[in-house]
Amino acid sequence: MADDALDTATAAEILAWASDGIPKLTFATGFGAEGCVVIDLIARAKLPIDLFTLDTGVLFPETYELWQRLQDKYGVEIRAVRPSHTIPEQALLHGPALWEREPDRCCELRKVIPLRHELSKFDGWITAIRRDQTPQRANARVVERDTKFGLIKVNPLVAWTHDDVWAHIYAHDVPYNALHDRGFPSIGCAPCTSAVAAGEDPRSGRWRGKAKNECGLHTVRSNQVGPDETKTDAA
Ligand code: SF4
């Protein structure tokens, strides 16, 4: 695929290109609506792409239930990647409810460090981010060099809108989190996610009342790379 062709390729074409060109490729899902779409696309095309999620230990029961439903429907394994300490162990080391006092530290311990360790085993990772989700994601490209984690980052849904995602979910009967029907457009860990009122920013329920709207997984600007460079670097 030519360099500029990726910008106009479909998500399925981008995933097929990445699967073909990046030897060790994984998809890290947080089970958002977008992530469910990516799992659907990967599974229906039978692409040999590893799947995992960061199980922080404080996900909603509805998220754990969705995790199982996706595995059952598509016949795939979505591996659990966990922090080195359980929630009780973290409380002993750093005090209880670290997310209330130091959410950045909590995300670092429970998401960023485990993700960095896991991604060190791969040449590339797929994410489900969209440009219109946050200002930090507005310049995301289809294929980037992820300078934070040191591998290729592929964002097949980067140009999709909220409506594109839900049209795909309904058209293909993709499982999604039951909380989406109860006022939770963006779902993370239970202690840091609240429902959103009509008219509010969809991510305003994440870390409500705190100057934070990202886990720290996608906040560092990545550099765009072309497909040929991707293949070379990944080989
Ligand atoms: S989202 Fe909240 S509970 Fe989850 S890792 Fe970040 S601060 Fe901790």
Describe this structure in words.
The chain is α/β, with parallel strands linked by helices and 235 residues long. 38% of the residues lie in helices and 11% in strands. The chain contains nine helices and seven strands, in the order H-H-E-H-E-H-E-H-H-H-E-E-E-H-E-H. The chain has a seven-stranded mixed β-sheet with strand order 3-2-1-4-6-5-7, with helices on both faces. Helix 3 (33-44) links the parallel strand 1 (25-28) and strand 2 (50-54). Helix 3 (33-44) packs across helix 8. It is globular and about 50 Å long. Residues 224-235 have low confidence and may be disordered. Iron/sulfur cluster is lined by residues 56, 58, 99, 103, 106-107, 110-111, 188-189, 191-192, 215.
Summarize the structure.
The chain is built from 9 helices and 7 strands.
Write the element-wise H/E pattern from the N-terminal end onward.
HHEHEHEHHHEEEHEH
N-to-C CA distance: 17 Å
Q: What order do the strands of the largest sheet run in, or round the barrel if closed?
A: 3-2-1-4-6-5-7
Task: Provide a count of the helices.
Answer: 9
* Helical residue percent band: 25-40%
Rg calc: 17 Å
- Ligand types: iron/sulfur cluster
Structural class: alpha/beta
Would you tell me the overall average pLDDT? 90
Largest sheet: 7 strands, mixed
Beta-strand percent range: 5-15%
Low-confidence stretches: 224-235
Choose one word for the global shape: globular
Number of strands: 7
